[in-house]
Amino acid sequence: MRVVICGGGVIGACTAWFLRRRGIDVIVVERADVAAAASGKAGGFLARDWCEGSPLDALARRSFAIHAQLPEQIAGDWGYRPMTAYSGFVAADGHPRRDAPSALGWLSNGVIIAQRIGTMETAAIVHPKKFTVAVMNAALAEGAEFRPGQVTGIMRDANGTTATGVEVDGGIVEADAVVIAMGPWSLLAAQWMSLPAVYGQRSPSIVYDTGTDAPADALFLEYEENGSAVSIEVFPRADGSTHITALSDIAPLPLDPAAVTPDHDAIARLQTMSERLSPLFRSERIIARQACFRPVTQDGLPLIGKVPQSEGLYVATGHNVWGILNAPATGEAMAQLIAEGATRNVDISPFDPARLAPLDPSLLQAR
Ligand SMILES: Cc1cc2nc3c(=O)[nH]c(=O)nc-3n(C[C@H](O)[C@H](O)[C@H](O)COP(=O)(O)OP(=O)(O)OC[C@H]3O[C@@H](n4cnc5c(N)ncnc54)[C@H](O)[C@@H]3O)c2cc1C
Questions:
Q1: Which tens digit of pLDDT belongs to each residue from 164-184?
Q2: What is the 3-state secondary structure (H, E, C) of the chain?
Q3: How many Å lie between the centroid of ligand 1 and the Cα of residue 103?
């Protein structure tokens, strides 16, 4: 059996690795580079039980456990480390605690820590780009093939029901099964098959070189500004980089993943906010100003499973803010579904693409 995976983000990489471990032939087709989009620009934060009470809970718990095991199973260093997480707020001018020392010594006065929301047992982090590349390299080392190119369509049999491959840059790559894992660009696949809409939600981020100065404290803060509050997230990583993100917005998704650029004003505002958090976040320590689009669905849950009304077509996307966390269990589930026809570790029925109405393809042709 040969499976073509469309997209070399974290979901495509994990699916490739779990399929290859079963001896299934895998070709990953990627338009830009491995982890070129959100999978290379995310924070990388992982939480075991923050999806409790939602249909994502079992997937997140399974994935959190696999993340902890992978450093023993795959070569490479992607900075997996447990960490503590805190919530709090940044006191605005005039607030009585504006000049109060922070409970965490590496933060500026006025950064008020409210509570600990994750412990070394329930929270962790990876460097998402290094993680995705390591998993992809492990799949390649096991015999998977990486094919640079843009997927432009799906091939079907004479009845039009069963996938027989994909069109890539005018050529054809034959396959017994096709997995759409193109992140927010999975939207374009709705032209080729019956798929619900996938949207892209943009977030800017700045990465600082903080070396060993920032401890393993993830921060989820409300930043008070002009009478309103903005959520800002800070993720110090094991390789000495600290990722800070806030201010997500709705922006048109560029057709080419390589054309995603940050909004200048949003980056400037994020930089000002970051400087208020800690003296570590000085401009000369900036190593990246970037933006990426999270893949989001109408109901906020991913699409994981068989594409309706087709044989041999699968989709795994729409992971929103938890794509790095949930990639390993998604890859494992996709491999089980394709190889055995059912999943064993996680019930993926809440993520069945058939739960949502398919997108009208004429809306895409109008773009
Ligand atoms: C600022 C930010 C911070 C985040 N922080 C976290 C976090 O801390 N923890 C967490 O769990 N998640 C986080 N996320 C979410 C996470 O990054 C995403 O959910 C995840 O990366 C999505 O992975 P993906 O593989 O589905 O898509 P992508 O990473 O978008 O990959 C899709 C790939 O498909 C390729 N592609 C597109 N079209 C084609 C085509 N036609 N042919 C071939 N290839 C194609 C693209 O080039 C791309 O490489 C964050 C996201 C953002 C934006």
A1: 999 999 999 999 999 999 999
A2: CEEEEECCCHHHHHHHHHHHHCCCEEEEEECCCCCCCHHHHCCCEEECCCCCCCCCHHHHHHHHHHHHHHHHHCCCCCCCEECEEEEEEECCCCCCCCCCCCCCCCCCCCEEEEEEEECCCCEEECCHHHHHHHHHHHHHHCCCEEEECCEEEEEECCCCCEEEEEEECCEEEECCEEEECCHHHHHHHHHCCCCCCEEEEEEEEEEEECCCCCCCEEEEEEEEECCEEEEEEEEECCCCEEEEEECCECCCCCCCHHHCCCCHHHHHHHHHHHHHHCCCCCHHHEEEEEEEEEEEECCCCCEEEECCCCECEEEEECCHHHHHHHHHHHHHHHHHHHHHCCCCCCCCHHHCHHHCCCCCHHHHHCC
A3: 34
